[in-house]
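LOG
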Amino acid sequence: MAISVVMPALEMAQETGKLVSWLKKEGEPVKKGDMLLEVETDKAVVEIEAQSDGILGGVTAKTGDVIPVGQTIAWLLKPGESVPQQGAVVQTGRTGAAAAPAAVAAAPAAPAEPASAAGARISPKARKLAREHGLDVSKIKGTGPGGEILADDILKAAAASVATPEAEVRSAAPPLSTSGAPADAVTSIGRIMAERTTQSWTTVPHFFVSREIDVSALKTARDSLIPKIEELHGVRMTHTDLIVAAVARALRKHPRMNASWENGRITLHQDVNVGLAIAVENAVVATVVHKADQLSIGDIAKQRIDKAQKARASRLAPSDIAGATFTISNLGMFNVDTFTAIIVPPQVGILAVGAIVDRVVVVDGMLAVKPMMTVTLSSDHRVIDGASAARFLNDVVIAIGEAGKFS
């Protein structure tokens, strides 16, 4: 029986996906587990594997197409089998770790909400965002199939509505560098990242708490553990690995910080999945260390290194970026002393980590030089209050101080 290949949902509330490339040619045999296609999300270019054996056929999507989640874009056929006709009984194939339910043969996409005042269709998420931003959907042009208004259309309209007249004039012409030459084009990942951070900053009530930490124990732990980790796991650990372990332990004690805010409801997560912001060319991606509170330092280091390499090569798998319940952004390696980070919805917190710098501090009434590091916690005030954020950050500091006990 023919198996449909659909555009997968790789993240929550995703409505469409962009096809980057097919990794198999039409008519070519495919084995279960083979990498079949590449899909672009706001985090990375993700390789999607085939969920069954078959011959790739009936390909309807080409490179660059933006396709609704769940829409059939190809088939995996048995030898001699034809592409099913509309209405035929077929088996659906799920692509990706968090794929949306597949549609059968040329079945129409699930209906969106009723048409807007201007007659255009609008998705439920887009309608919700329009209400939050106070936008008139009848004045917004949709870019989805058949002119459907998508969430991205609402975000663009919201960003444009707060632009100054001068900014609007500048945006009408191609951006120029100081030399008068055209500026670098924004990548798709960079564009979506900009839209998502704009959405977070304008809809999530952020507040910030900071601490300056004596990280003498952290440095000592790292120096003592490096030889052991290299011998057992063949990787070189960093301060970041110890910070991930410390944050994961604190998250276990503070379930509301390990939560999500969606549609006015708080969801407490059982697993502690720590996202790590990683700089790639012209963008930032967030890979995920799953169940970080249960991993050894060596396992955390191996995951971090492996996923960082895949991120910079644009070869992340869906499981590498899915499911984060909290994020860490470390700019210490760039000699940044302190900064604040924007929350990644639907998460409710992100920790910004600065550089370790020797500073003169007072210890027991005496001046001393200590390695110090500033951390800043961004929290969603709809879920976390100031006292709760302070208690969580205090437990992070305590866990960092006990880094020498990590195994």
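LOG (cont.) second protein
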Amino acid sequence: MHNHQLLKGTIDSRYGDIFSTIKKDERFDVVIFNPPYLPTLRHERIGGSGWFDLATDGGVDGLAVTKRFIEGVHKVLSKNGRAYFVFSTLANRDRFTTYLTEAKLKSEIVSSRRFDDELIDVYQIYF
């Protein structure tokens, strides 16, 4: 690890359904979220072991899981906390913006990268 000597504090990694592993009064300065973000119709699902669908299937508008995250992130972010996650331009950006507005969250794109027919944006959201 190249930056090991620069790390301060602790990093806690948890596995669960969005906020299911968070204790009631826990708050975080940084939350990183990698949702399934591709718009997916039922007939487009691959099936089988299900891992690919879990990793990519964002529902019809690509925002099914992201919406749940946006609606609940205020419960886990500290006052000056930041959350980071990916958004695909294949998803519905107008609906995404509406979700952020309804949750009273501010946002900015901190990184973008083009992959074939989509642009992947990394968003930072905060209060």
